[in-house]
Amino acid sequence: MASVTQHQIQKFHKDGFLVLEQFFSAEECDDMRSQIQKIVAEMEVPPHCRTAFSTREEEQLQAQGSSDYFLTSGDKIRFFFEKGVLDEKGNFLIPKEKSVSKIGHGIKHKSWKIFLQELGRKLGLERPVVVQSMYIFKCLLAVTPHQDATFLHTEPLGRILGFWIALEDATQENGCLWFIPGSHTNGITRRMVRAASGASTCVEFVGSEPAYDEKQFIPLPISKGGLILIHGEVVHKSELNSSESSRHAFTFHVMEAKGTTWSKENWLQPTPELPFPSLYT
């Protein structure tokens, strides 16, 4: 594991993101990928649960928000698919290992926890809890500019931290992340909240996303094994994967629970039986 300096932590607070190359070894990345390959090989998803993942707001509301499959995925392994890979009957049109957009939101990888505990302590986190995790395949889709706090809202803000781990080289050709440096200091203007009971969808968006200046985004290519720290309010995106290669990544979000209230309007809710697990235990 690469060590983290105080200068790097200061840079993270200034920019809202930080690239840590070679944080994990190639072997550790391959181990994670092999675990996921086994999960996908054994994947049997009922047709009525086959939810196409979309980043367009209206389709997101329709496809994800109206589905209990999405809303109850916080502590389970659930599959979300690329667009156009299922027919009307929910059957796969392409090999299923190429059909998955992401797996979420309750993936666990115990062997990595020790490294991330050390990083959390260097960042001054006192009671960090893991609120969600995802394995992202990045076969095709672009992800529009967004802030993670739109979906994971806390009072006060500034308590959400993303860990984005490159399991393969992430390049501009295969869809690396892009960021607007310093954009984590402007708050948020849009939230995804649970809709009132009886509504046609389970979630809805409140507020609006501002028009971002595309010239302000900078790309962050990163090598296999690298880690990107992501502030919950920094604006980021990824472009279409225009290459022949995939761009696998494992990502999860941590909340500093000390002095923090998790919004009861968030789509993802802990339960007394399954609270958010501590990063430190």
Radius of gyration: 18 Å
Q: What is the chains' assembly state? A: single chain
Category from helices, strands and their pairing: alpha+beta
Low-confidence stretches: 61-67
What's the total count of β strands?
16
Secondary-structure element series: HEHEHHEEHEEEEEEEEEEEE
Distance between the termini: 19 Å
What integer is the average pLDDT? 81
| Total helical segments | 5
- Main beta sheet: strand number and arrangement? 8 strands, mixed
| Tertiary shape | globular
The proportion of strand residues reads 25-35%
Cofactor: Fe cation
Pfam family, one: PhyH
Keywords: Iron, Metal-binding
Organism: Cyanistes caeruleus (Eurasian blue tit)
Summary, kept brief:
With 281 residues, this protein is of the alpha+beta class. It has 5 helices and 16 strands. The two termini are 19 Å apart.
Question: What would you say this structure looks like, in words?
Answer:
This protein has 281 residues and is α+β, with helices and mostly antiparallel strands. Helices cover 19% and strands 26% of the residues. It has an 8-stranded mixed β-sheet with strand order 1-13-8-15-5-4-3-2. The radius of gyration is 18 Å and the shape is globular.
